[in-house]
Amino acid sequence: MTFNPIIIEGGRQQIGLELGKLARAIMPAYLDQSSTWAALRPWRGHAFLDALGEAAKAALPHIWLELEGLAEGLRMPLEDVLLWNCRGDLLRKSSDGCTSLAWRGADGARWMAHNEDGDPYLRGRCRIVDVRPEGAPGYVGFYYPGSLPGHTFAGNRAGLAQTINNVRARQRQAGVPRMLLARAVLDCTDLDQALDLLRDLPRAGGFHHMLGSARDRRLFSVEASPTQCAIQEISKGYAHANHLLHPGSPPQVITDSSAARQRRAEQLMDGWSGSAGGGDLVTALLDASGELPILRTDPQDPDEENTLATALFELRDGRLSLRVYDRGPEAVLKLDIRGGDQAGP
């Protein structure tokens, strides 16, 4: 995989079109080997999928235009692209995993780090995109072929950072598909706007959102599931794998890997001192100890997921920076997403 960002700009439909073109060559082979796609195909033509599409168009018309452009660029039916982008709303099992960490440094810096775990077939086949839509801040993030960016890790030019973890809620309901909702967060200019969006829109599926801002000292853990949006401010350090942790969580599936990664991440963070920083978060996410480690490289992983990239965001004095790692301690990408000025988005 090359981690050099691909710049994509223009109107919403044009951005979707270019994202689709970027993935067009790989998409047929990717879907052919995907057990998730095989499980999704019976949902073609289902009234519930139509309801998810209608909810998305009504609540997020700009994001829907991106989805239409994505279908055009992929040269796939819009219904199939919607189906693929609703996989976590329809299925309890999909090859999207991840571990996220957050930490407040002693010097006022905030750190957010994330392992993006996905289909092992995609190792070396995903991209970093620098998306610059008209009328929105624009963002830099990880792009899965055929999926709107936002449901992985990304930071926008207003200074907002988001990492996403898959959760496997047993309930489903008509509402906005979770991947489109995560994409919409990247158009927000501050934390309160992002929290309102997640809280107020009807949610079809479940995600964990880790949220921070270069212009706001707060960090948040948000578990946005079909039946509730649980928001918790992070006081010092926090770890989250692929299951709901907040009190009153709805019924869910907790895999052995998710439970093991959660325990190990908390164990590692418990040993940190007040001087811990970004390097400690990266080291934790590269931890390969145990039968079901945080760093996932086993082709026979029980959740069918491997670590595709590790991201570290630093939020300090109005500046948002991103470093990306490829299963090793040396960053393969370093960039500033937002400079240190404080004068608005």
Automatic annotation (TrEMBL):
It comes from the Bacteria. It holds the Pfam family AAT. Residues 103-324 form the Peptidase C45 hydrolase domain. This is Peptidase C45. It comes from Bordetella pseudohinzii.
